[in-house]
Task: inverse folding
């Protein structure tokens, strides 16, 4: 009599129960709620045929909700200074390998204009928790003025990723032109959080997102894959992100960085990252799910699109003097540009969305957020 494994349990030779897989994918296809155990089961797949079925279901889900359209985000990492000690991050304070820069307002504006001209739909302004802004009275004032000016000039959507922010700063961001607040927890296991982000307050970081939501900002949350989490912890994270209603959700593989406590860790396999993207798509069908060029560069993009991602992030123009958060891969060679990405989209049967498509999506998301808060 055949033995049916429990969800998450693998039978011999790495093949899962095909009936269970079909039932789970059918259930996801009907957009029914998958339990954390079912999420863990999908994450546990190792057989290429089964992973192929998962990816196909995820692509179909993307097609259902987004057609063939993909959004493109320009990345402006304007300060790599940071007061924190995150164990995975090249730019943790005191790391001599973390190349430091803090771009001037003119440099930020110029990089933004060039990105806008290149055809991106959104500008993501990112920094570490730079004391220059975070620890001076009125330190954020010049940034408010700058993003307001860039918003007026370009008309693009604006995301800010400036770390944990005080509520009074978050409240001022929408009037300054920001639409989105990104603040990655990286894990929703408190114990792992304390190892990945030593000295930081788990609840304070989560609260910052709730305060941003109250201020009217759309939210991006993210988790690292391959940074010491168990499969159950990872599944619980995806479940948390679904329940918390973040409008954009990202999974990104951990990359070992020089000079950090995790420098000696092995780089995780690539397939589980794409597999996790597919599970995000199946469990959160209508949300925005990024494929970051920061990990594996342009060469890694097809597998993430194949898994159902519908946003290409971390587009950085060569000669802008800007880095990615995890790598500078492909920047100097001009392979993190709209021009370089378009053929990859075409090969995947996808196309760059129009600007109005993102505006429409964001307006709907803001309306839903307002209705949920009422
Ligand atoms: S992950 Fe962000 S907060 Fe942590 S050290 Fe790096 S830049 Fe700073």
Result:
């Amino acid at each position: 009599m055949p033995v049916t494994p429990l969800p998450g349990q693998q039978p011999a030779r790495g093949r899962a129960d095909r009936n269970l897989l079909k039932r789970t994918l059918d259930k996801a296809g009907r957009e029914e709620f998958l339990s954390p155990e079912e999420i863990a089961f999908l994450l546990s797949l190792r057989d290429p045929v089964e992973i192929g079925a998962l990816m196909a279901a995820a692509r179909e889900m993307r097609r259902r909700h987004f057609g063939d359209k993909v959004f493109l985000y320009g990345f402006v990492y304007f300060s790599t200074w940071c007061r924190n000690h995150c164990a995975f991050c090249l730019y943790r304070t005191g790391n001599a390998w973390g190349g430091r820069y803090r771009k001037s307002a003119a440099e930020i504006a110029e990089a933004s204009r060039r990105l806008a001209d290149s055809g991106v739909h959104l500008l993501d302004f990112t920094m570490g928790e730079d004391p220059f802004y975070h620890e001076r009275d009125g330190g954020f004032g010049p940034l408010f003025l700058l993003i307001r000016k860039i918003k007026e000039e370009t008309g693009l959507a604006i995301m800010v990723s400036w770390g944990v922010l005080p509520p009074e700063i978050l409240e001022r961001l929408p009037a300054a032109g920001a639409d989105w607040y990104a603040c990655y927890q990286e894990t929703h296991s408190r114990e792992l959080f304390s190892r990945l982000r030593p000295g930081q307050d788990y609840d304070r970081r989560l609260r910052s997102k709730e305060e941003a939501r109250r201020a009217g900002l759309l939210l991006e949350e993210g988790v690292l894959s391959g940074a010491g989490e168990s499969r159950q912890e990872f599944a619980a994270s995806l479940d948390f992100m679904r329940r918390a209603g973040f409008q954009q959700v990202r999974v990104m593989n951990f990359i070992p960085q020089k000079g950090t406590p995790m420098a000696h860790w092995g780089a995780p396999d690539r397939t589980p990252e794409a597999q996790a993207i597919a599970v995000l798509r199946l469990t959160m069908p209508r949300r925005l799910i990024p494929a970051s060029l920061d990990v594996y560069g342009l060469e890694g993009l097809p597998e993430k699109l194949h898994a159902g991602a519908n946003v290409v992030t971390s587009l950085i123009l060569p000669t802008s003097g800007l880095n990615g958060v995890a790598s500078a891969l492909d920047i100097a060679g001009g392979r993190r540009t709209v021009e370089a990405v378009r053929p990859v989209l075409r090969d995947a049967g996808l196309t760059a969305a129009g600007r109005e498509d993102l505006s429409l999506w964001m307006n709907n998301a803001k309306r839903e957020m307002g209705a949920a808060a009422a």
Notes: Residues 82, 84, 86, 89, 91-92, 128-129, 163 surround iron/sulfur cluster (CB under 6 Å). Strands lie at 69-79, 122-127, 157-161, 180-182, 218-225, 248-253, 290-292, 311-315, 351-352. The chain is about 45% helix and 15% strand. Residues 1-12 have pLDDT under 50 and may be disordered.
